[in-house]
Write a structure and sequence with these properties.
About 30% of the residues lie in helices and about 25% in strands. By secondary structure, the protein is α+β, with helices and mostly antiparallel strands.
């Protein structure tokens, strides 16, 4: 069990159990989160539990070259009624991701506080989809160098989350991101082009990505069919 008031540090992710669990305990401050993502680890747990830290094998990733945009989505993008914004309402995106889940959420108040602190430091970002002045979709994630680790996304109008993901992939890779982490492969993500790599390959690519200096401030988002 990691002590919450100790200096942040994690076991070797290669020592994770069969489910990918690396450790329990610790805290969700910015220093802990930075240490985790630098090590290829992320938090995921339920209310009433200590923080649980994971590094699954295999790991799901995406890239712009393998992104699948359907014909109907390409048509939608050409006539898109939405506006794309970057980092204008990070907390709003997190709270929407937490609220828009019928099965409950792991995005607990302490996680919102921790990731918002990362955002204020420039290490976490939100991709937002607006319809007028209404936030209708988006995603948020953590940046460490040329890594972007997408954490969650939501939609309140049809196609809004797909637009957010397409914009994130196309814009962030154009800006210099080289590793886009989506953690677990789902049917929905697979249809959009997500695929898996081994933990070993992920950690190797992470070591290269996090060494690159990349400033995403003032990024202009785009989504093309």
């Amino acid at each position: 069990m990691l002590a919450p008031y100790a200096k942040p540090g994690f076991p070797n992710p290669h020592l994770a159990d069969a489910r990918g669990l690396v450790a329990a305990g610790g805290a969700l401050g910015a220093d802990w989160l930075r240490s985790a993502y630098d090590s290829g680890i992320f938090p995921w747990y339920d209310d009433g539990m200590p923080p649980l830290w994971w590094s699954p094998d295999p790991r799901a990733v995406m890239d712009a070259t393998r992104l699948h945009v359907s014909r109907s989505m390409r048509r939608f993008l050409r006539q898109m009624p939405f506006e794309l914004r970057f980092d204008t309402d990070f907390e709003g995106v997190m709270r929407a991701c937490a609220a828009e889940r019928d099965e409950g959420t792991w995005i607990l108040p302490e996680m919102i506080e921790g990731y918002c602190s990362l955002h204020r430091l420039g290490d976490a970002h939100s991709v937002e989809v607006w319809h007028g002045e209404r936030l209708v979709g988006g995603l948020y994630g953590v940046q460490r160098g040329a890594l972007f680790a997408a954490e969650s996304m939501f939609h309140r109008e049809t196609n809004a989350s797909k637009v957010a993901l397409i914009a994130a992939l196309q814009t962030l890779f154009a800006a210099g991101i080289t590793l886009f982490d989506v953690q677990f492969l789902t049917e929905h993500l697979s249809m959009l082009g997500a695929y898996t790599i081994s933990r070993q390959e992920y950690l190797s690519r992470l070591q290269t990505a996090k060494q690159r200096q990349l400033d995403l401030r003032n990024l202009t988002l785009f989504a093309r069919g």
